[in-house]
Design a protein that fits this description.
Blueprint lengths: L3 E4 L2 E4 L10 H5 L2 E9 L2 E2 L2 H14 L8 H14 L5 E8 L16 E7 L8 H4 L1 E5 L20 H13 L3 E5 L5 E4 L3 E6 L2 E4 L10 H12 L4 E3 L4 H5 L3 E6 L3 E8 L2 E2 L7 H15 L1
Parallel strand pairs: 7-8, 7-14, 11-12
Antiparallel strand pairs: 1-2, 1-6, 3-4, 3-5, 5-6, 8-9, 10-11, 10-13, 13-14, 14-15
The structure holds 4'-deoxy-4'-aminopyridoxal-5'-phosphate (PMP).
């Protein structure tokens, strides 16, 4: 099946959706992106995603050549053109074609492309059993370097942590921050449950402010589950009753082992399961 890709204002066949080798998104990871779910024909939390995309771009001094409204319309157009009602959308903005130097001044026109496709980050059965993770030796970006709050095309740090997970034979790695506190996973935010209370690192602990994370915090508030954003140490992971991770691709995934230590009973806990149910209900609208 050949997908239709939105590329700089036009829908083109996947085979013809090509970016120049001089694009700085490729040469230097100079660009930003979003990953957005479509559930039952409707874009999930679209305003929050669009806002983060334009904030990311602003932070790296990249002017997106279309308005947020046009971006939203282009995203809609892309998944509809491919007849998807449930899918994952990737919206990418690159600095565009430049020369071989890093100076973005020489890239005159940023490129925008949008892909709508299916995604399965983890096998279905893992959502029932939970997954094992490690803490990676690679730390999350220092907030005063390229901020972890920017969803940029520069994922190498996270990829290196993911390779550590691969080497350890587990699907995901927790990254600590520059102070040694818990930040997040390579592409997911992290939550723990302790004595019935849900805890998650603060945005200022060096994380991407996940859209799914925001939904979980909101669902906790609505269901009178105590949820607090606070600094967590690796120790807090080891002694947690429950752990789960959240992301657009992963949705809500229980974690049952960290660095070989069994978390809680070794099975997805009751609060995690409740939040998974609440999330599913929320998604169904
Ligand atoms: N952290 C990182 C580093 C991510 O790349 C992502 C998105 N894949 C997340 C957290 C989760 O964010 P969201 O819920 O907005 O997908």
């Amino acid at each position: 099946m050949s997908l239709k890709i939105w590329l700089d204002g036009q829908l083109v066949d996947q085979a013809n959706a090509k970016i120049s080798v001089y694009d700085h998104g490729l040469l230097y990871g100079d660009g930003v992106f979003e990953g957005i779910r479509v559930y039952h024909g409707k874009l999930f939390e679209i305003e929050t995603h669009i806002r983060r995309l334009y904030d990311s771009a602003k932070s790296i001094r990249l002017v997106i050549p279309i308005t947020p409204e046009q971006m939203k319309a282009a995203i809609e157009q892309t998944f509809r053109a491919n007849n998807f009602t449930d899918c994952y959308v990737r919206a990418v903005v690159t600095r565009g074609v430049g020369d071989l130097g890093i100076n973005p001044r020489n890239s005159k026109s940023p490129s925008v492309f949008i892909i709508a496709d299916t995604i399965a980050v983890y096998p279905r059965a893992m959502y029932e059993k939970g997954m094992a993770v490690i803490t990676a030796s690679y730390i999350r970006n220092h907030p005063n370097a390229q901020s972890p709050r920017i969803k940029s095309l520069n994922y190498l740090n996270n990829i290196l942590a993911k390779i550590e997970a691969n080497d350890a034979g587990v699907p995901e790695a927790v990254m600590l921050n520059h102070e040694g506190n818990v930040a997040e996973c390579t592409a997911d935010n992290i939550f723990i449950v302790r004595d019935g209370k849900v805890l998650t690192p603060k945005v200022t602990d060096g994380i991407l402010e996940g859209v799914t994370r925001g939904v979980i915090i909101k669902l906790c508030a609505k269901s009178s589950i105590d949820c607090v954003e606070r600094t967590l140490q690796r120790h807090d992971l080891y002694v947690a009753d429950e752990i789960f991770v959240t992301g657009t691709g992963a949705e809500v995934m229980p974690v049952t082992k960290v660095d070989g230590r069994v978390i809680g009973t070794g099975e997805p806990g009751s609060t995690t399961r409740k939040l998974i149910d609440l999330f599913k209900q929320y998604v169904r609208g």
